[in-house]
TrEMBL record:
GO molecular function terms attached to this record: DNA-binding transcription factor activity; transcription cis-regulatory region binding
Record protein name field: LysR family transcriptional regulator
Alphabetical keyword list: DNA-binding, Transcription, Transcription regulation
Family, per entry: Belongs to the LysR transcriptional regulatory family.
Gene3D superfamilies xref list: Winged helix-like DNA-binding domain superfamily/Winged helix DNA-binding domain
Source organism per UniProt: Amycolatopsis acidicola
Residue ranges of every copy of the HTH lysR-type domain listed in the record: 1-59
Length: 293
């Protein structure tokens, strides 16, 4: 039987003094209240109400059982309240600082439609998994090699001036024989300062004979972009970032560069929701290709 429903009807009728008024308090039809109380009486083995009068008068057994019934109803109400709060508990997610406010807001809206409530914390690639380990966030989008990623973001080079070629080859950045004038540099933003991206760029730099100073890691995406504006320097970035910054983007010739992302989470359910139910929204935030965007 529905023990909680029976106790709720029992408590409501006893407090209201009649089956009709008690049913209204419990927000159920009067016949339903009567059936639930009858089932509770059968379950407990004794009458709770004296039905010889028009009023709902408790029997001695009913008076003895009323305090326990009230405790059970209060516990059930507390359980429902806690369940609602638990559903609203936000999933704090560590994300790259490359995600725009608009894209994160749209991801949050997508999640709410699935009864998942997100909050975001931006962090560097080397910090995000550690935030999960120390329980400062529930999950993180972590940087991994592209071949291991759930999401893959192709990278290229962006400049303020529109390049003539469809592909930028690093060897075109070599200075002339005279060595006069500043050499063009490639700026790496912090999100790409990870071995599986940075080391490939450095190997490509060395293989085409660029100077070591021609590839530099910036302290922030803002600093990297500032170094490219009003100069001939180039920013290593995604096509979406280039559009946001108003830069012209081209793929890099001779070397394949891409960000890979996966999820680390304290709970498998959180990781599953992010990898599957919110996969497209996260792809939009990251600028990943090959997803429903």
């Amino acid at each position: 039987m529905d023990l909680i429903g029976g106790c709720r009807a029992f408590v409501s009728v006893s407090e209201a003094g009649s089956f009709t008024a008690g049913a209204a308090v419990a927000r159920i039809p009067q016949p339903v209240a009567s059936r639930r109380i009858a089932a509770l009486e059968k379950h407990l083995g004794e009458r709770l109400f004296d039905r010889s009068t028009r009023q709902a008068r408790l029997t001695p057994f009913g008076r003895d059982m009323l305090p326990s019934a009230k405790r059970l109803v209060h516990l059930a109400d507390a359980l429902e309240h806690d369940a609602k709060r638990a559903k609203l508990r936000p999933l704090l997610l560590a994300v790259p600082d490359t995600c725009t406010t608009r894209d994160l807001a749209e991801l949050d809206a997508d999640a709410r439609a699935l009864d998942v409530f997100l909050e975001f914390r931006t962090a560097a690639p080397g910090e995000r998994a550690e935030l999960v380990r120390t329980h400062e966030v529930r999950a993180a989008l972590t940087a991994v090699p592209a071949e291991e990623g759930v999401w893959v973001v192709p990278l290229g080079l962006a400049s303020e001036a529109e390049p003539d070629a469809a592909v930028i080859h690093l060897e075109t950045l070599r200075g002339g024989r005279s060595g006069r004038g500043p050499r063009r540099r490639v700026w790496i933003q912090p999100e790409d300062d990870v071995p599986h991206i940075r080391d490939r760029v450095l190997r490509a730099r060395d293989s085409v004979g660029l100077q070591p100073s021609q590839v530099a890691v910036a302290e922030s995406i803002t600093s990297a972009a500032a170094s490219v504006f009003r100069s001939a320097d180039l920013l290593l970035c995604s096509a979406d970032q280039a559009r946001e910054l108003g830069l012209a983007w081209r793929p890099v010739g001779g070397v394949k560069l891409a960000r890979g992302f996966d999820v680390v989470a304290g709970l498998g359910e959180d990781a599953g929701n992010l990898r599957t139910r919110l996969r497209s929204g996260i792809a939009r935030c990251l600028g990943a290709k090959g997803e429903d965007r």
